[in-house]
Amino acid sequence: MENRDIEAVALTVRSLTMDAVEKAGSGHPGMPMGMAELGALLYGVVLRHNPAEPDWIDRDRFVLSAGHGSMLLYALLHLAGYDLPLEEIKSFRQLGSKTAGHPEYRAAPGIETTTGPLGQGFANAVGMAVAERMLAHRFNTPEHTIIDHHTYVISGDGCMMEGVTAEAASLAGHLGLGKLIAFYDDNSISIEGSTDLAFTEDVGKRFEGYNWHVCRGDAYDTEGILRRVEQAKAEADRPSLIRLTSTIGRGAPSKAGSHETHGAPLGEEEVAAAKKALGIPGDQPFYIHPGAVEFFSRRRGELEKEHVRWESAFSAWAGKNPELHQQWKAFFAPAGRVDVELPAFPVGEKVATRAAGGKVLNAFAKAVPNLVGGAADLAPSTKTLIADAGDFQRDNPGGRNMRFGVREHGMGAVTNGMALHGGLRPFCSTFFVFTDYMRPPVRLASMMGLAVIYVFTHDSIYVGEDGPTHEPVEHLAAMRAVPGLTVLRPGDAEETALAWLMAIENTDGPTALVLTRQKLEVYPKADESWRETARLGAYTAREAEGNPRIVVIATGSEVSLAVKAAEAMGAAGAGVRVVSMICRERFLAAPEDYRRSLVPSGAKRLVVEAGVSLGWEGMAGEGGDILSIERFGESGPAAAVAEHLGFTVESVRKRIESLLG
Ligand SMILES: Cc1ncc(C[n+]2csc(CCOP(=O)(O)OP(=O)(O)O)c2C)c(N)n1
Ligand SMILES: [Mg+2]
Q1: Tell me, what CATH number does 280's domain have?
Q2: Tens digit of each residue's pLDDT (9 = 90 or more) over 532-557
């Protein structure tokens, strides 16, 4: 790429950015204008990708963690030849366009992840680099290298300030992810003004402390940047941070360097002056320099050849390694239904659903070879270790157990990156109460439809002695409030096995398995085909004699409680049906006749769940009741805390009796 090509591309990035933001009347011109040269180099020289085949598995990944600079990405994707027509750039930020305010995964090819919440993209990039290393180890042979790519990310001051970046960077340094290369857009500006207001640490030193290779340069010294990228690539054992001193809004004659360019249109006058200074024809909105078009039409050809070379290497590899090739298919194109021998849990056995979950996870680990994951330093408690599978570490890339450390936020975002990369089925795990520390990536996984599995244990006040800080009460409501997240709270070990199966089969979005710390007795299921009906979200665990007079809708540990309460009523309990609602969202989406048959309109309803009632009001209906917990828990033995909060067989029984009148 000659200097004039770089200039033509950078000029076009600035031209499209200014006009798109101006036309939309909103957006962030500063970042793309400041990073235009780096963008030109990335898409012009550095990235090994193929715009004609955006799903090429061995492409380099590029993540724009500073997602507010979305126009940088859109301009470059358009120029590089991705299916993102100029018309889309002209409708930047408009309803239904592919050019949303912040990049949205799958909105257009070439957008590798949804970014905008600062720091998430950085951590996603770490996850992508983890995936690359895992897959390279599994599939490359001494003769053929079929997985070998880099992950690049641009982060701004905001990303660098966010804790999630720190968590993920620390993990990446520990793991020695040499193929991860981060650029830091070091423009010393964020929204409120100079970063001196709040951010005066030495980022470079911090990253050196994380075991990163750190170097520094000028964002407009293009040769220097390419040299530093080569140095970074040569660093096999450490991720690299290339810190580039830059000017926000570069090219805007009076506003460059000011926070005013961060997140508002430059204004007609400033745009006109900028265009004049840059040599952009003032009478041609959305001007594209012909040199940029010419350059990328050449470049596309080269990249297509690169891809063809990879494809022939892949064919040669597949021919020589038929078994590995079969494995590859299992990783990248898994069959729909999984055949697995699930552990049996006899009725009457007392087993915590977390313990059952651990057994089931291990059964699935045998059947689903790309199932990988781990916990935020809680694996002994969440029971999420895959036996005999080793730890994923810098010197053991074949390990399947991730040791995320005490970094829930980073764990969630890194797991998203692993899922985004493709080829892996990642899970991660912590105590349910600490989902508070990982809501942002859970939300993004749901928004992106990533097939991530969460194992959240210690799901209620039954945690006991650890006290209210460790006892989730509002968390089921909070998780169920996330659109697209499937929340499963099984009532016993058998249901846990089914819940895991549902999680594995759900490839449209994330699934949260909410499991108990305490032991629960496996109960007989009145509905013989419960393994099928429960997939609709709920089924009859205990049946009434004749038409039910009352339906007790319970989840998780409260199902057996409700069954016991009904049994304790003797003959008076004959009219009590107990429904295990393993997944409220699925039940609400189930066919109406199924919903009505399970919860008939003639019966009274009692909802029992050891958490806040928020969201259950409709299910209880008029004249119904909800046994819930509308406060924080207490520290004490689980049984004492439960009794204190009214979760006993007796109290459930009383509620039922008072409803029956
Ligand atoms: C988690 C999160 N918090 C806050 C914001 C709002 N926000 C968007 S950009 C920005 C400032 C970012 O500064 P920097 O990364 O330096 O970007 P620059 O101004 O240099 O373009 C903030 C606070 C956000 N997008 N995400
Ligand atoms: Mg900045």
Answers
A1: 3.40.50.970
A2: 999 999 999 999 999 999 999 999 99
Q: Which atom of ligand 1 is nearest to the CA of 102?
A: 25
Tell me what percent of the chain is helix, strand and coil, each rounded to the nearest 5. Answer: 45, 15, 40
What is the position in ligand 1's atom list of the atom closest to the CA of 195?
16
What total of structural domains would you count in the chain? 3
CB under 8 Å to 244, separation ≥6 — which residues? Answer: 38, 183, 184, 185, 186, 216, 217, 218, 219, 225
Ligand 2 centroid to Cα of residue 181, in Å, is 19
Return the residue matching tokens 């830091």: 184
Residue 317: half-sphere exposure toward Cβ, Cα within 13 Å: 21
Give the phi and the psi of residue 86 in degrees, each rounded to 5.
Answer: -55, -35
Which atom of ligand 1 is nearest the CA belonging to 119?
1
- Does residue 237 surpass a pLDDT of 80? yes
Domain co-membership, 470 together with 574: no
Q: What are phi and psi for residue 186, nearest 5 degrees?
A: -90, 75
Mean residue pLDDT of the chain comes to 97
Ligand 1 pocket (Cβ < 6 Å) reads 30-31, 66, 68, 116-118, 156-159, 162, 185, 187, 189-191, 248, 262
In a domain, 338, yes or no: no
Residues 291 and 429 in one domain: no
Q: With cut-offs at 50, 70 and 90, classify the pLDDT of residue 406.
A: very high
Predicted local distance difference test score (pLDDT) of residue 334 = 78
Distance between CA atoms of residues 123 and 296, nearest Å: 30
At 276-324, the pLDDT tens digits run 999 999 999 999 999 999 999 999 999 999 999 999 999 999 999 999 9
Distance 416 CA to ligand 1 centre (A): 21
- Considering the entire predicted model, what is its pTM? 0.98
Is 104 noted as a catalytic residue in this protein?
no
Q: Are strands 519-521 and 350-352 parallel, antiparallel or unpaired?
A: antiparallel
Tell me which of 29-33, 332-336, 551-555 is least confident.
332-336
User: Within this chain, do residues 23 and 150 fall inside the same structural domain, yes or no?
Assistant: yes
Domain's final residue, options 488, 521, 554: 521
Which domain, by its residues, includes 629?
A: 537-660
230 and 100 fall within a common domain: yes
Regarding whether 462 and 544 lie in a shared domain, the answer is: no
508 domain residue, yes or no: yes
515 and 429 belong to one structural domain: yes
Please check whether residue 71 is in contact with residue 17, taking contact to mean a CB–CB distance below 8 angstroms.
Answer: yes
